[in-house]
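request received
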Amino acid sequence: MGDDIMSYNGGVALAMKGKECVAIACDKRYGVQNKTIATNFTKIFQYVLFENVSFFLKVQTVSERLRFRTNLYELREQRKLKPLVLYNMLTNLLYERRFGPYFVYALVIGLDPKTGETYVFDSDNIGAISDNVNLATVGTASDYIFGLGELFFKPNMNADELFEATSQALLNGVDRDSASGWGAVVYVVEKDKVTVRELKGRQD
Amino acid sequence: MALACTLGFKSNDDFNRSLQSEKTDNHIDEFCPKLNIENIAQFITLPPYADPAQYMKMVNDNVDRIRIQFLKGTTTLAFKFRNGVMVAVDSRATAGGFIASGEVKKVIEINPYLLGTMAGGAADCAFWERVLARHCRIYELRNKEKISVAAASKILANMVFEYRGMGLSMGTMIVGWDKRGPGLYMVSDDGERISDNMFSVGSGSIYAYSILDATYKYEMSTADAIDLARRAIVHAAHRDAASGNIVRIYHMKETGWEKIEEKDTNDYMYQFREDKTMNF
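response:
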């Protein structure tokens, strides 16, 4: 596994855009280097859907600190968060620790229910801001999944095609990485509903 | 052996000396001289520095940001039982986190009655076990009888002991059947050679040991032994990130080895979940 802190726990996440729908998927492994401890650890949090991989203690800290800030925002402003606001809060949170960073890579996806506008953003562990991209991947298997994602992505896919593309890219990509896999979860977000599906993957 | 004595051939109990003697039936050796410490430069390109052991240690310790990782990321196991020896291996090769291959043959068929398993550096295991195969064949031709497992494993252990500290990475099990019955030896790159009823080598060996220790009995039937070996590899493949893909099982019998099966561990995991012997 190497002595790299970002691959200590392993894990992977993928997000893809479609026409008025977005999908985010992650694997379910929780492990410490070679040892697999649990196979039900999904890395997706919150309703605007944001996801972390890598060092799981930090994952929980970051997600809870972010939840604190977003709750405070909603109480003060008396309205729900937009995806871009969540993303900016997250990158700000990460950059606050620029010289002693959280060991976390983040992906944020969102959908505006009125306009149908889709958002997919990713971030490194010190809060680099990305544009609103079609496809984003983070984690130990990200290189392998990027290749497959670029292959399966088509512009303006509907929800079913998007689900197929996302799940195939993730499942086949993690088969080339020893630190991720053991099943997967895919969230497909549309204007009126969020569909959560569990995928059957290789358990080794 | 009168002809052999006339030609100056040394007898069986001088086997070691006969390997290095100049006056033996060297027709084979003219075409392919024996690999020993003096003529090694003909076979293996030596590294361009004086002390390979020290240099390899530096490289392993990540000095100057170069790091070659020799990880024994695998699961191999073998155990003796009433009807011979059962050998089972996985088939995954990892380089750091990347799964380089899911179809590596980790059981090396040295000859029809000797098997070796591979853990550690694939090149090291494959090369030295092939050199061992050559020694075993020459022994068989010279002495008109099959080599014993004890002797074969000793040859291998002595060969790698010459390279101790130079960074070979090899954890192999030599399995065979000779006139003393089934034989199982574990040989590793530091020159260790031990014999016992059950071994498992590799990063997934801890998981395999727990399954083996739970239900192993010497008086098992062959079918039970195959099932135990299979389950041990499948459980190790599930928990260990560096093991998985295909499980291969071999059975060493009096008549030689037989390949039992070569199936995907993932299919077995879902099958074991169905009959509740595995949980995930």
